[in-house]
Design goal:
The protein is mainly alpha-helical. The chain is built from five helices and three strands. α1 (2-19) crosses α2 (28-53), α1 (2-19) packs parallel to α3 (67-86) and α2 packs antiparallel against α3. It is globular and about 55 Å long. The chain starts with a helix and ends in an 8-residue tail after the last strand.
Length: 155
């Protein structure tokens, strides 16, 4: 139960930080969207917590091997929530899609270097670490970087 509360709080915090909104400024639709993401992630995090508490992972396995790999995937989800928040900024900044130092799916490779407003990214349905990407956001290290550059690229 504690782990579930922590997950819900972290996902909400990541979204709020990216959007620069206060929790009280969230619309009902955004609350539902965040709630759906929390629900999806609770199963995975609860399963991880159960495995750790059951002794499936020894302390030396909590790093890059074993549980560490599962935690790494979940951290990507936090980054994805931050990126989703960025697309809801009221000032509608321009963002450039920047790929990270990893293998890229065809979606991320195609979007690399494109610049669009937050609203345009939002309406396109593309966001880093998103399940809508070919990579499904797994080990995706792409991000949106605020820029003053003119729009470029096509979705």
């Amino acid at each position: 139960d504690e782990m579930e509360a922590i997950v819900a709080a972290l996902l909400l915090a990541a979204f709020l930080r990216g959007s620069r909104l206060s929790e009280s400024a969230l619309s009902k639709r955004l609350r539902e969207e965040i709630g759906e993401e929390v629900t999806i992630n609770l199963d995975a995090v609860t399963s991880l917590a159960d495995d750790v508490y059951a002794g499936r992972y020894k302390p030396e396995q909590l790093g890059a091997e074993g549980a560490g790999r599962r935690v790494e995937l979940w951290v990507g989800t936090l980054a994805g929530m931050y990126a989703r928040g960025q697309l809801h900024r009221k000032d509608d900044p321009r963002y450039e899609w920047v790929v990270g130092p990893t293998e890229h799916c065809s979606d991320c490779a195609r979007l690399d270097g494109q610049v669009h407003t937050a609203a345009e990214w939002l309406s396109s349905g593309h966001a880093p670490q998103s399940r809508s990407l070919e990579c499904k956001g797994y080990r995706c290290q792409c991000r949106l970087v605020e820029t003053t550059s003119r729009s470029r690229g096509g979705f």
